[in-house]
Amino acid sequence: MTLCWSKNDNPRVPRDRELPRNCGQLLGQLDELLPFIYIAQYGASDHDLGAHATDVATGLFAVGKQTGGDRPGVAFRVGLVLPVHRCRDEKVRTTLLEIPALVNGTKNSTLSDRRYAVQAKLDSAFDGELMIEDREDLDGFFALKPGSGLFKRLHESFDYVISVLDNPAGAVHVTETSTFHWQSYGELMDWYHGLRGPSRFGTWSPLTPFYVCDDTGALHSYSTDRWGRQGLIKPAEEPSKWFVIRPGLPNANPVVRFEMEEYVWAKLHLTLDAVTVSIRLSDVFDPFPELVAWGREIDGGDLPIGMEIDEEGQIAELSVLRTENPARVLLRVARDHGEDILLEGIVDRATLASALKSE
Q: What one-character DSSP code corresponds to residue 225?
């Protein structure tokens, strides 16, 4: 039950760090969630895949189904993840947990045998309110056809995931769930499309239940690598453990300035005394939510704290590290994993936070 990546001619090693996420593509391995009922729309936009934090659509996660062939691909859905092991009805939970073994079948079982056995378990759990789609292959990620009473049953017994820690080089860990609020298909469709709006053809895309126990996948691309870099970083470096500020060294004066450019690009100019470094801000990999959060952590003294800005070609690494004096911090801007230092100096923490807020 591992996450399978689509092939890529120039694969990147996934970043080994946990990203708090309440929406978007799940990049880590899904063993902690499997098996789950997935109520989702076929297809996903770049926004669906790249998002990681929202205040209005928590719990809309993108999960891909792996497709076969010499160059396997991934077909995405976007929707709600309902882990079976969190079901509050013991009989339903136990019955649904028996399905993965039936999907794999025995050596001599036919597809018809396996479909009959799986459908019998679904009937036992939901009293005929959930059927295998007629033309669906019975694999680790198969579509289902809901009856009118299914959603009331889900409301009574199931929770859905609204927050996780997602490690692209590791696993997805659930941090928060919520009761499945909707008691009918219509209620769920109203909520879902009230958030997302109609399709470009002016229609509402249907939501389909899936049973997922394997065959999941993620998009392996430059964008995936960037999405794995989103969020704030806790740098491992702690100079205050080994060094003290040289006596008599004054604080550098930090200046923060944003400059708009053409084609929705912008620049961040960071100055310490007479030295300025300019970082290009991409609309494709929008860094502004992280910049706001980074400034908030600095203001609150929650250090060390760092972030990365993708300039669509280069990665700028911004970090603020503790010193032996809580009021004074080390500000550093670097590239190449800290090998190329662009800007570095001791600043007053409150002054730096104020400079960020003023912009």
A: H
